[in-house]
Amino acid sequence: MNEDDEKARKSLIDALQKEKKTSQDITKKPKINIGSTSINNEKEVIGESSGNKITLISKIGDLRIKKHTFLQKGEYDKAKEVAERIIHIAKKGGMLSSVSDEEAEIKKIQDNIDKKKNIMILKRKFKVLKRDYEKWVSQQNIPRSHNMLQEFIEEYKDLDGFDSIREIKDLDIRDKKLWVKYRAKNR
User: Fold this and answer.
1) Which 3 state secondary structure label does DSSP give 35?
2) String of DSSP letters for 99-166
3) Range of the domain at 87
4) Does 16 lie in the same domain as 70?
C-alpha cells in the first residue's frame, strides 16, 4: 500500500468514527427542540448529524405540520417558505421523494398565491368599474353601462379566481335585468 492509499484509508476510518460518535451522541440525547433547527441547543439538524435519517424525518414531519397550518390559514407565502426549508433538509438527507413531493406542493402553493393576487387585483378594478357603472345607470345610459360591464367580464373571466368574486356575479345579474328592460322598452 502506498502513502496516498494509507492516508485515504486513515481519513475514511476517522470519518466513520466521527459519524459513529455523532450517532451515539444523538442517541444519548434524544431531545429535539420542535420548531427550531437544533438538538440540545448544540448541533444543527443539517450540520454534523445529517446522516441521522430519523432526526431529519422527524424535523420534516414537524415542518409539514407547520406548513399545513399555514395552508389552512391561507398564509401561502409562509407555507411556501416552510416547504422550501423541507426541500433543503430532504436534499441534505438524500430523501429525493420528499424533495419531489415538496416541489409539487410548492407549485400548488404558488398557484394559490397567484389566485389570491388575481382576486385582489380584480376586486380593485371592479371597484372602479362599479363606480363608473353606477354613474352611467343613474344617467340612464344603460347601453354604456352594459357594454362597460360586459367588456370587463370578457377581459377577466379567464383569470383564476374570477368566479369567486360574488360582487361581479351580482352586478352581472342586475345588469342583465336592466338590459332586458332597456331592450324591451326601446324596440
Assistant:
1) coil
2) HHHHHHHHHHHHHHHHHHHHHHHHHHHHHHHHHHHHHHHHTT-HHHHHHHHHHHHHHHTTSTTGGG-H
3) 1-94
4) yes
- The pLDDT tens digits of the residues spanning 74-117 come to 999 999 999 999 999 999 888 888 899 999 999 999 999 999 99
My answer on whether 69 and 130 are in the same domain is no
pTM score, two decimals?
0.58
Average pLDDT of the residues of the chain:
81
86 with 140, same domain? Answer: no
One domain for residues 1 and 49: yes
Instruction: Please state, as a whole number, how many other Cβ atoms lie within 10 Å of the Cβ of residue 65.
Output: 12
- Residues β-bridged to residue 39: 32, 43
Q: CB neighbours of 112 closer than 8 A, spacing ≥ 6? A: 76
Chain position carrying cell 460518535: 21
Residue 42's pLDDT band, with cuts at 50, 70 and 90, is very low
| Type of residue at 173 | I
